[in-house]
Design brief:
alpha/beta; seven-stranded parallel β-sheet; six-stranded parallel β-sheet; about 45% helix
Length: about 625
Amino acid sequence: MWVGVNLFFTDQIDYNTRYVIGGTLVIGFALIAFSIFDRIMARVLTHMFKRDVYIRIITIIAIALVVGIAMGVNNSVADAKKIEYLGPYTAQQIGVNRYLGELDMIIENTHEVNIPSVNPNIIDQYVKDNQCLPCQVGTNRPAGDDATGDNTECTPILCSDNQYVSDHVCENCPNGYKPDPMDEKTQRSIGLELEKRKNQVINASLITKFTSLGFNKLTEIQKQAIPKILEQKDSLILAPTGSGKTECAVIPIFSQVKKIKVSGKIKMLYITPLRALNRDVFRRIITYGELEGLDIKIRDGDTTPTNRRKIRDSPPDVLITTPETVVLLLSQPEYLSALSELEWIVIDELHELLPSERGSQLSLSLERLQHNSNKEIHRVGLSATVGNVPEAGEFLVGKNRTCEIIHDKTMRSYDVDVKYVNGGIYEVADGIIDYIEKLKIQSPVLLFTNSRGESETLASVLKETTKMKIELHHGSLSKQVREETEKMLNDGIPGIVVCTSSLELGLDFGSLDLVIHYGSPRQVSKFMQRIGRSKHNRDSSAKGLIITNHADDEFETNAIIQRIDESSIEEQKIHELSLDVLAHHLVGMTKQLGNVSVETAFMTVKQAYPFRDLTIEELSNVLKILEQLITNSIML
């Protein structure tokens, strides 16, 4: 009877209720059986035993055996019906739910799950001889003889949909079990949960790609950020210089662009605040893209007319550019067409844009790019030095959007000497030369100054003082001169490059053993960005010298170093409501869209974070000024 309840009422009666009903029936059955057995045993066993007590004991034992067999059969049928109901989702979803610490109920009215042998369906493995082997239990390291080998980083791997994990091995679900029909809501819920878990797993081919590019293991920020990028989340990635921020964004994005690229369409923009770009500076990014079969071009103010026409007539898959150039692209029909299926935007050195009009201009360009594209654009920001993190995230994604903040809060260590020189610029130059010679530096040395005038003066004095190779780099120099200096850095030729902020951002010149700064950097972020160019690896301490002939600069630098020790970075105040930038973009919107209603312009502009508080009166005033300018120009 108990078995019958489980066989024929599985889908009509709750699992626990069936146990109560079955138990009641068994008790009744036992009472009836006892009465019958008592009469039979009394006659059969009377001649063997003289006392009735022995007959009663044997009767009870016989009944207990029958009931025990019935219960065993019942449990097997009930568990089989449970697995049959959940089918291949049993192992997958039970494992996921337990791994996440959620309830053991999959859906409403689903039978309670309690299968001890099913473990979370994520196991740690490592690769050896092109095979996946399990790691030590409870660790992410290889077991046995391989524990000290090179393959010490294990890759989380999901089992197949029809498998579960038992003793850290993928096992197939029993044959013949299949799920009962599920409603659409349940299927969608389970599908989303499994997809969520799968998106947390870094694709094995992506790991191989990082390894082939020289990464022995993923850095902490790469482990955190890559799954979010693969989920196409708008993300702000914050980590110290040398952590591999650029790679954790562009490599997974390139793997996605490879799948969706369309001839004649730009699928990704890489925007950098550097005012002058060249191919050597971005050789790593270009190399990563070319390995995926992607066409990557650079478009900035230095791009020749011939190359501009080539980019316009044959748009690349990925375009590296500047905030100013993006504005120009949005005013040209050919580029608007090329950007009509844009899906990714990466903004490097985001902190540099936050407090300036360049940032306000870019924020409006981002909204216009989204308005132009028939695809949802995913935004990724990169920075090493941001004090106001939540606001930086809002700046990146705009109003009423969600930004994933992926933050490696560990601070890189800085080995910095502060040297005061009692004298003029010639004594400063002598102090710089003595310091380099004392350390026996054999790599190029960056020497930052706070102005072009200082850089030119100091470079001139150094050339008079030493036989070392001295080069100068700043934004006012010709493209040819800048590229010759950058080549010296790329080739690792010993010498001193005196520079301004032109060599501060997003550059990788290999191994620089020392960075020197003349005068105080003025800000914690500037200090970290510039000194951080040395030993461009977060596992190594950045080596630097701050040299000055002003006592105030010495005190200020020591205060900056103390703030770094306290992990205190100043906030970059957002440049808000820049009405001249607004006027520029309003004109650009008419070139982009033709006739634009005031309501459309107002709603588009307010999506940009720096203009979120714009009022309709302020917009109307800007439009009136533009109308007056147009009227006056016609009259002239």
